[in-house]
Amino acid sequence: QVELRESGGELVQPGDSLRLSCAASTPTFRNYAMGWFRQTPGKERKFVAGVNWRGDNTYYSEDVKGRFTISRDNAEKTVSLQMNSLRIEDTGVYYCAADPTGYGRDTIRTYSDWGQGTRVTVSS
């Protein structure tokens, strides 16, 4: 089991940048792909970005491609999501998740462990 803790969420204005971080507890962090998901009230959790176990393959949803960047540091056991040019529709609770398959793609059922989430609000 992987314990995950997100941080970095806050209230920002449209066009701002924000960086989310996720720290993992497990010593086998490098065996997992990692992903970020977003959830808004009344809607299902939606894939935002993923990175494979080595950090050399990344995946993004179409609505964040070119604006968000996912990265990982296996030595520090962290994964980050750099979010630029934020839009109102980026608002939601962002969850970090671990994928034991190692791929980090957009299939939510492959993610086995989840953090508690961090709230991002984009509002003018």
The gist of it:
The protein has 124 residues and is mainly beta. Helices cover 0% and strands 45% of the residues. It has no helices and eleven strands.
Task: Explain the overall architecture.
With 124 residues, this protein is mostly beta strands. The chain has no helices and 11 strands. Strands 2, 4, 5, 6, 9, 10 and 11 form a 7-stranded mixed β-sheet that branches. The chain starts with a strand and ends with a strand.
Please state the structural category.
mainly beta
Please compute the radius of gyration using only Cα atoms: 13 Å
Describe the biggest sheet? 7 strands, mixed
Termini separation comes to 39 Å
What low-confidence regions span 5 or more consecutive residues with pLDDT below 50? none
Average pLDDT for all residues: 96
Give the helix tally: 0
Coarse morphology: globular
Helix content range: under 10%
Strand fraction band?
over 45%
